[in-house]
Amino acid sequence: MTALRVLVALLAAAAILAGGASMGGAFASPQAPQRREDPGYTGAEGQIGIGDALEVSGQPMQLSLFYTGDPTLKVVGFYGDAFQARGVTPIVAGDAHMAHVSGFDRRDGVQRFITAIAQPDGNTLVMVGLTNPRKPPKLMNAASAASFPVPAENRGFLGFKSEDPGARAESGQYVSSLSTDEVAAFYRAKLPALGWSEKDSSDGLLYFQKPGQTLSVALQKLDAARGAAVFVNRVEGDAR
């Protein structure tokens, strides 16, 4: 379920960044984000670049991720201390399952953030990024604005669009009173009529494609009986 975890991290980062930027006075800076050497995490198991020239809901952004055997709160504590050492006030939230820290550096006008998510195998997925928060992200809060179908039985829809050289993406998450099987049946009925073909799906993760585009639907049960958390990601072009 790595795709699901990464999408959760992206959405959490976008939501917390909006609040963190406002609290930190970030909107005064017109500068674009510039890469600057940040403290490397000693327990990192290989860092993977997601994009150096992303644009997420109107904000330029750089993202990378790595895994570590350390718990989420230890990771966030490390970066929180590093922020304070450079005179940046950290904004921290989370628990043993998912933790986040962000901070706005007035010296270069960049908002840095780290999201750590515990994995079923005992490791922790860590997403590290920076963005120019001169304006808040334009998040979609209506399912009707999405380019992909969303069942009527949805609530709490939150989505955003991102862009990287050669690729564009639209993502959304919502919860539904439908079961995961019913949501899967909804997409298997709706998407083929829109030209999508299902390929290489697995339990909890549906995968569809058509020329030049891919679409994934990650599903997570809310309880033993009914209810689902749904994460949809549509990509045009060559995602890196």
Give a written overview of the molecule.
The chain is an alpha+beta fold and 240 residues long. 20% of the residues lie in helices and 40% in strands. It is built from 3 helices and 12 strands; from the N terminus they run αββαββββββαββββ. The protein has helices at residues 2-24, 72-85, 180-190; strands spanning 47-56, 59-68, 91-94, 98-105, 110-118, 124-131, 155-164, 167-176, 197-198, 205-210, 213-221, 228-237. Residues 1-9 and 11-37 have low confidence and may be disordered.
What is the structure about, briefly put?
The protein has helices at 2-24, 72-85, 180-190; strands at 47-56, 59-68, 91-94, 98-105, 110-118, 124-131, 155-164, 167-176, 197-198, 205-210, 213-221, 228-237. With 240 residues, the chain is of the alpha+beta class.
